[in-house]
Amino acid sequence: MKQAVDEESKEENYFKKITETCAHTPFIASYAILRPPETRVNPYTNAIIPNERIWFENDRFDLKALMKWIKESIPNYAHVVRNLDEATEFVAEKGIHKVFLFTKKDIVPPMYAAITAKYRNRIRIAIVNVNTKDSTELKDFMQVEFLPQLCILEAVINVEPWDAPVRYYEGTMKYQAIKNWIGRYIVSEKKTK
Hints:
By secondary structure, this protein is α/β, with parallel strands linked by helices. The protein has helices at residues 2-24, 63-73, 84-91, 110-118, 135-141, 175-183, 189-192; strands at 32-35, 52-55, 79-81, 98-103, 124-129, 149-153, 166-168.
């Protein structure tokens, strides 16, 4: 009988310690962004490679710190193109549309980084910083009149890349509008089945 009472008191003490600890431990929110690997399958073992988790690690939670972390952690799959030679190399891949973003910004804006992640491996996206001296020739060649400017160089069968039609974006520079415009040029996997 005494052993049963001792077991109950041990359980009560253990429960008290847990509740006291939990009551004094502050709640820390944890957030993670999943970044897909460059290749989904390991070529040596044929094992699926999991997504990389990028954790929000900050002692204090505030909206400004969270937004900064999101902007820094969004995967960016855009190609940086500085001049006409690099653009020619960029468009050489056949069978896939190419998007050019002409901008004055030195870093890729988070909205475009999110679009590159959304359409990864279905379209190629290049960022052209017009502040560099070599980009003027490319800007004139692509007939860019205002900034920021988005344009798609369509991939057409049996047509050289620079001879393919160029479509210029004329809408607002909002994520949803740009995503919808680019989405029109992509054949979805769901539609092809």
